[in-house]
Write a structure and sequence with these properties.
The structure holds two protein chains of two kinds.
Chain A (H helix, E strand, L loop, with lengths): L2 H24 L2 H34 L2 H8 L6 H11 L5 H13 L4 H13 L2 H11 L1 H28 L9
Helix pairs in contact in A: 1-2, 2-5, 4-6, 5-6, 6-8, 7-8
Chain B lengths: L1 H17 L1 H35 L2 H9 L3 H14 L4 H13 L4 H13 L5 H8 L1 H25 L5
Helix pairs in contact in B: 1-2, 2-7, 3-4, 4-6, 5-6, 6-8, 7-8
């Protein structure tokens, strides 16, 4: 990210903050609603993020790189996708939690395709979320959705991962 | 949710027993990672709060219900891609829309893109993986959502 983009974003955030605070001060309804949206989403994320990042930290320290490379790395075959889906299925939060976790996995030597499979499945097949979905939409709906999307996720992740690896793509920046 | 706290707590305790030093190191990594990505999270929250205000439930309902099937699916794909909702809001909303007569096919397109395609998570995703990969991944996800919508339409007898 360039410096200019950062300044632009910081300025945007500042304008936003001033707008919301003034809205509360003067009782401007749309501004208040936006502010309340912001707060309720922040709270929902605050419930998850600290735990997620503590687990990421522990993962970085305790899990050996060789273990990840062996099971999820370039020589690991199709079982890596199975692990990715299983890992995603039991995780919490949405995409926004999946990205930092995926990044950690990648740094420990997991292959790109597996990373994409993990991200996609943490969007669509988290177990608690699917149960919740089924209770509103019916089991048939959830089953069709999973049966169609999961194979597509595996195949597309393999293709995308293979394509990018061939082009020499690397997530280089250390964060 | 409580399970997450339980697991995190247990993991921390086990780690502490095994090695205080390593646990300390792990927590330092946790804080550093969180702080690095925090600005992107805040940008996302700002975008979410504004978009949810601009696109309230009744607008979504009006747009999904009033068209032909194809247009309904396309609109659903669009709204699902630009907005972001946690599951505990999205599925009850889908449940209400279903009762109001929106087809399963349209709702499949809506909920799948809502979860998989992230216009609003772009700031976070691109900071980790770069713009190109982010766009590619989201495009692929959009195609998967189309496939899911079509399959749902077929299985529920809504097309053909």
């Amino acid at each position: 990210m360039t410096k200019r983009a950062n300044i632009f974003k910081a300025a945007g955030a500042a304008v936003y903050a001033v707008f919301v605070v003034l809205s509360f001060f003067y009782g401007y309804a749309p501004g208040k609603e936006i502010g309340q949206n912001f707060i309720s989403f922040s709270l929902a994320m605050l419930k998850i993020l600290p735990c997620a990042f503590i687990l990421i930290g522990l993962f970085e320290v305790w899990i050996k790189k060789e273990t990840i490379e062996k099971h999820l790395g370039s020589g690991s075959g199709i079982t890596a996708y199975f692990w990715g889906i299983l890992l995603a299925g039991t995780s919490v939060g949405g995409l926004y939690v999946a990205f930092p976790v995926a990044y950690s996995l990648y740094n420990k030597g997991a292959k790109l395709g597996m990373i994409f499979a993990y991200i996609a499945s943490s969007a669509i097949c988290r177990v608690p979320m699917t149960i919740f979905e089924a209770s509103f939409m019916g089991i048939k709906f959830s089953m069709i959705r999973l049966a169609v999307s999961l194979p597509l996720v595996v195949v597309s992740s393999m293709l995308l991962g293979g394509y990018l690896e061939k082009k020499g793509y690397k997530i280089t920046k250390k964060r | 949710m409580y399970l997450l706290y339980l697991i995190t707590g247990l993991a921390l305790i086990v780690s502490l027993i095994a090695s205080r030093e390593k646990t300390w190191k792990a927590l330092k990594i946790s804080v550093k990672r969180l702080v690095t990505i925090l600005p992107a999270f805040i940008i996302m929250l700002i975008l979410v709060s504004v978009v949810l205000f601009l696109v309230p439930d009744n607008v979504i309902f009006a747009c999904l219900g009033n068209h032909s099937k194809t247009i309904g699916v396309l609109v659903a794909l669009f709204f699902g891609s630009i907005t972001l909702m946690p599951g505990f809001i999205a599925y009850p909303l889908c449940g209400i829309l279903l009762e109001k007569g929106i087809t399963y096919m349209v709702l499949a397109a809506f909920s799948t893109t809502l979860m998989m395609v992230g216009g609003l998570t772009y700031p976070i995703e691109s900071q980790y993986f770069g713009a190109k990969v982010t766009i590619l991944r989201n495009l692929v996800s959009l195609l998967i959502a189309v496939a899911v919508a079509i399959a749902t339409g077929i299985f529920f007898g809504e097309i053909g």
